[in-house]
Amino acid sequence: MTGSAALLTDRYELTMVDAALQSGTAERESVFEAFARRLPEGRRYGVVAGTGRMLQLITEYRFDDPELEWLRANEVVRPATLDWLADYRFSGDIWGYREGEAYFPGSPLVTVQGSFAEAVVLETLILSVLNYDSAVASAAARMSSVALGRPLAEMGSRRTNERSAIAAARAAYIAGFDATSNLEAGRTWGVPTMGTAAHAFTLLHDSEADAFRAQVEAMGPDTTLLVDTYDIERGVATAIEVAGTGLGAVRIDSGDLPTVVADVRRQLDELGAVDTRITVTSDLDEFLIAALSGSPVDAFGVGTRVATGSGHPAAGMVYKLVARRDDAGAWVDVAKSSAQKVSVGGRKHAVRRLDGTRTAREEVVIVDAGEAAPGESGADAAEATEAAGRSQTERDLVVPLMRAGVPDERWLGPDGTRLAREQRAAAMQELPIEAFRLGAGEAAIPTTYR
Amino acid sequence: MTGSAALLTDRYELTMVDAALQSGTAERESVFEAFARRLPEGRRYGVVAGTGRMLQLITEYRFDDPELEWLRANEVVRPATLDWLADYRFSGDIWGYREGEAYFPGSPLVTVQGSFAEAVVLETLILSVLNYDSAVASAAARMSSVALGRPLAEMGSRRTNERSAIAAARAAYIAGFDATSNLEAGRTWGVPTMGTAAHAFTLLHDSEADAFRAQVEAMGPDTTLLVDTYDIERGVATAIEVAGTGLGAVRIDSGDLPTVVADVRRQLDELGAVDTRITVTSDLDEFLIAALSGSPVDAFGVGTRVATGSGHPAAGMVYKLVARRDDAGAWVDVAKSSAQKVSVGGRKHAVRRLDGTRTAREEVVIVDAGEAAPGESGADAAEATEAAGRSQTERDLVVPLMRAGVPDERWLGPDGTRLAREQRAAAMQELPIEAFRLGAGEAAIPTTYR
């Protein structure tokens, strides 16, 4: 990579700016909305992730000389448009769901208000971040909900693009994973990192015992030894011989896990290693984790399936112009209206209706909130309903994320990542029990438009 | 992102180095191999992609002060290991399949030879690149093979991580796509870029005619107008009214495509716009492209399904230690041997056996090539067979990619990307016709070990 992130975008975002600047429509104040028309096939809920990364990327979004020069040389836009791009800084407002929030079809996840030109330029970047991160978080949340409190580690870096891997580790952490193998995610986002050794380390040595000795000498007996390179039973025996009964954990990466795990637990107990934990890491997904709910597994490592969204590698979010001013300054709601992919025009906010047990019952999308910014009138509505009695409440879902180009700092960096993880935990508490069924089905709560 | 790419790796790669340095095994000369145990479910062949990116990343792989400081502060490895990492430069040899080559289960795609420590450190990075890029290229090649020569554009940037998007555009181009929407892929890899306008541009204007006029003024009548914002028939009529019969193309992004495309072609011809092309871009994949083989479509734009590998977002490649020297300097073949995920130990090279019509019939993996580096004895074998008569030939598949840390420049940058695209075209020519059936089935040719 050379230069800034400005060219992480589709060419048509810039050609639209070019044409709009020429026709005099570029400065029309506009509202764009990112939402998912539907959940991935069979899913009951989604988890919003990427918001903190998105805010950071938008704040830093600049066209520097190398980008401008490349656009000029390739005649992507006219020279006048290059001048406009050179001055580009997003100066508008963004509202949206808190990172870590649950979402449903039609939930207005991100609302961007600014001039048409400054808001349209961000489309590709916003969707790239939200679609990938939310796909990973939505899959990871399902895994987390069936792990029954046992720690989950994300180790899918090798199964996704080298830079996606960082985002995947962060999204999985937000969705309830406890650690990652990815060191850059540790550095950039503060996600705890883990990992000890692979089969190659055992094969490098003249014997399994040599390898285990080398590892214990370097990492201490509290390490995790990988015991399935040759024969698991022999591997476990050797591990305890070498490390003693204080060995931290054994890792199993192959075999029929329910059987193998039970055998290894029995063997460890017989050897007196009653506190030695068992970690499993063999092509796991939410279904295999659930199938191990009765097994004495102490921790799970998940690779491919979490980093690729467990069958749904993109969350399917779109970014649509829903309102813009006309020349007289009046707001006009807009939406595509031909046969398919119809959208609901108008600025929106949203509340989640909770019953007396604080269980979510309905996603209410309030259309055409008019001049009131999302998250402002909504808060009042929620309080008013709550004051009327504890039987039902409406929780406001849309909060300000950026004001006049300045992001809400709370969502940025490692602190923002932790905040998103807390938000996800709170949002999961509210979902009805049907949301956690792994089998295919409808969204756990209906979305209605008010 | 701050700093170098050194932390795009799993923690255990560094803890293995740490333990091996301490136990004295780190310098054992080793051979690692990247391969796929199987093709993704139902696929007939795969396309290798990412090699050029991988060589570049390996060449630049360095631990700079910020990375070393983070590793120190987080106690990932011992101080002595930090010194080793500070001096890290890969100085070994790499052989592998040419980028763009077809591959099958067990094909030795990349072979890395160096000290254990210097080769193991690259595992995560090599697999991240190969697994994602090859997943995209393998899906894109299927789309390319059913497009019957009509141009394909990759436009999936918004459906994958913002940095993956660049790699996806490159991989799709290698696999036969003609252009991408992604500007950074244009800048970094020389992939032609395309794109004009989205529905938002039409909705921004007071009428569809206003929007089309603005676009034609900015981009000229040879542009592509998106005609399905309101009503397609009206959109086509307006497009020709505004741009004239010299309009470059209309784009259709929704509706029942075979019907809609036929209607639009008829309408364009009746209006005299006989040279105006029709581009379709509505949630396409290889099956929908094939279903349009009889329709008057002139170009396809593919998004989600190409950038996410059309159901298989990771190619499933692994990186295994297959041989290493012992203390006496003798080579020892090694492989995991417990119940599952068994590997074939030993250094390998490979040839593709072709019949008299130069159609591929067998992938021959030659195990334990001994001291001879892959790609050296293989070349001789191929020539000898060819000299014996034209009835069968064996084409050598493994070539040197890096010698003593210096990459073969031909595979780097935009030139390397073009070379890979040519290689892919040549490899496709050789595949038996069964390889191009879209339905699920076995690998098109068997892999045998010699």
TrEMBL record, chains A, B:
Belongs to the NAPRTase family. Residues 7-131 form the Nicotinate phosphoribosyltransferase N-terminal domain. One of its GO terms (cellular component) is cytosol. Residues 372-394 are annotated as: Disordered. It comes from Agromyces rhizosphaerae. Its EC number is 6.3.4.21. Gene3D superfamilies: Aldolase class I, nicotinate phosphoribosyltransferase. Residues 375-389 have a biased composition (Low complexity). This is Nicotinate phosphoribosyltransferase. The lineage of its organism: Bacteria, Bacillati, Actinomycetota, Actinomycetes, Micrococcales.
